[in-house]
Queue: 2 jobs
Job 1
Amino acid sequence: MECPNGCKVPMQEKKVEKIFHRNNKPIVIGDLNIYQCMECGHESIPVSSAKTVEGILKGNMKPSGQFNAELYEASAGKI
Ligand SMILES: [Zn+2]
């Protein structure tokens, strides 16, 4: 797959964790295949992954566990 920004390097397949929102609640989808451009960082979700996300957001899959994480707001304060 080629980067839509016209970069010369081919995009690489990666597995990532991403946060989505369903009914105003955050959910985490792990092991999700995406393509990322190593040059500009552009991410592209292939159709198969988009369908998986859509199905999960519709409630077509049971969760395999709980994900708890600390939340940091980048705008909350100085480091
Ligand atoms: Zn690129």
Job 2
Amino acid sequence: MNPKITIRRFAVFSFAAFAAFSVFAAVSCTPLTSMWKSTQGNRASAEKSVPQSVSSERPLVSNAFAYARYVAINLSDTPRKDEWTEADIKSVFQKAAQQSGIPESEALKFYSMQVPSQAEGRTNQRIGKFRQQVRACMSDSKGWSHGACCRALAGPAALIPEPSEAQTLESSGSESRFRVQGMKAWLSVCHSVTSGQPATLADFRKFHDYQSVQPDGWTKKLHARSRAKRGPRRLYRSAEGDIAVAETLVPEDCSVLETEVIVRRPDGALNFWVYDARGQPVDTSHFPPADVPAGGGPKTVEKPSPDSCMGCHYDLKTRQFNVQFPSADELKLPSTKDLPVLCRQTGESLAEDN
Ligand code: HEC
């Protein structure tokens, strides 16, 4: 595609998305039912990748709205618990862009950069591409920080369609639609920054020494047959219950493959962080594959974080990402009764997983 046209098209959307926020909000205040209709496609594709549950629990908002609200929560300095409207969300995006100090034309230049991505699957490709756009922003001679680039690019990622989608969007006339794929990519690259994830697991442990379990402090439990991981997993929880740490264990030697962290924010939403075996922050986590082919196959697959977390740790009705301990039954995760009990330390509490 001619880059000039691309930029102009982005500029048009940018005008719609930013310059005329209030007008835009007024025309885009669609009733929930029609919004639901317009994003059914997104919902279906999101549901393919992660187990979902209880179809009778019809959600109150669309998947796209739920993601947009979560991105806005990520960008908000002050916690709020009341209802969010589409206009609230868009004004958070607009404010974040202003706070970043990056002029809109610059942000759009980075966002419209055409970068090839070799990753497998649509979500991973989108993440790979967005990561390079954020890198381009950060390596600009003006020295923009990661946080500033994330603030400036949240609106574009959430609202501007991929060039390949533009045709459909224009013909459907629903410019206000939030873009689930763009927001998933934004979350992979930006959630750890905007949520203040400590730089390493060692840093996290300086604040939260979860392994030194005490009667009135952290608690510890072994899920020897975790249904989320289809294998052993050790869970720690803070005394207040608002921080949880989950170590995925390697069945062969019980070493820690990765450490997942959930921190409840003051507004009730959750932050999802992952560290690899060396304690470095990563944006993927290991899960059992959906189907293991008859001849065998990989024992685990890596899925993007926080997107994969959000596929299970959410309220089925309100679609808020605030469920710290999801029900494996409600998520219809396969039983793990056939697995052996591994990795139990002397006297360690054992959870009922089946
Ligand atoms: C397939 C669904 C699923 C996905 C995806 C998932 N979880 Fe979970 N999570 C669960 C279930 C179910 C539990 C309850 C314990 C168990 O079965 O292992 C849980 C428990 C936890 C706990 C312990 C909570 C507590 O209060 O004790 C943490 C921490 C956690 N998950 C973090 C994450 C993070 C971070 C991600 C993303 C990288 C993630 N989870 C992705 C289903 C999931």
